[in-house]
Amino acid sequence: MSIKVNEITKLYGTQKALDSVTFEIAPGEVVGLLGPNGAGKSTIMKILTCFIPPTSGDASVCNYDILEQSIEVRKKVGYLPENNPLYLDLYVPEYLSFIAKIRHEVTKVVSQDAPVTKRQTKVSWNGTHRITQKRVDEIIGITGLGAERHKKIGALSKGFRQRVGLAQALLHDPEVLILDEPTSGLDPNQLMEIRTLIKEIGKEKTVMLSTHIMQEVEAICNRAIIIHNGKIVADDSTANLHHMVSSRTIINVEFSVRADPLKLKNIKGVIEVKHLSGDNWQLKTDSSRDIRPDVFKYAVDNNLTVLSLQKDEVKLEEVFQELTKS
User: Fold this and answer.
1) Sequence-ordered list of residues with C-beta below 8 angstroms from that of 184, at least 6 positions apart, any chain
2) pTM (two decimals)
3) Number of H helices and number of E strands within the chain?
4) How far apart, in Å, do the first and last CA atoms of the chain sit?
5) Model confidence over 31-45: pLDDT tens digits?
């Protein structure tokens, strides 16, 4: 397994941030860790990237224990924290070279006979392969930073700063990528660009990303782990999560005059009635049975005219809201 978490609990004083969390992520999976703010998503990621230890339980990344073999874990993981700490006064290539150095991967190979202009900086990775300036250029290309490489990071938009954060996470060619809310605060165009980039990366690596936006998981991931109050409340493929709500429908209807909510609730199959505005109502059903004929019958029986009627499927957000109610 790329990631294995077993009965992880994390306490901050008396506050239980994580409560016996257990899950596994196989190689090649793109998994969304979904939950409201304060659910424990960032805590899980900080534990898996060896920034903080768990109070109890154990976990491994690429079969390396996070406590006993933390250095090996860090070598296998690329991490983009939620706040994406960057050095704004550095140029993009300069920053990536600096990141390589602070990862203890840089050894300068300087020929004493060669002119300074021909000196090269090589990055070693456990002696198994070397990353040269070519690797930095490659990552700049992969993350779409080519046109911005001559700018200081402080001059970049938030979307491009997120790309720089992804670039540093990918620089050492990790097997596992852990991204903490990578699209937070981006505008719609930047959002789509970063999502597309993550999907491309996910074709070759195991990716775990956190978010509180269900559409994010639908757009990028093939599996979702939903966490609430430090506990996992759902862990399934996005397709199966869709199946959980596929048997439900929503009817949005507008009548000519105000309807009686109690009579609407008595329509067969209706489990919830919501007044939207004016003479507009939303009816939620407990099955896939089409209740529109019943709504029309109700209107006729009560001398009402149906001005508009629309049938919608219950969205995946509904599952998230139901599972994360306090």
Assistant:
1) 82
2) 0.77
3) 11, 17
4) 33
5) 999 998 889 999 999
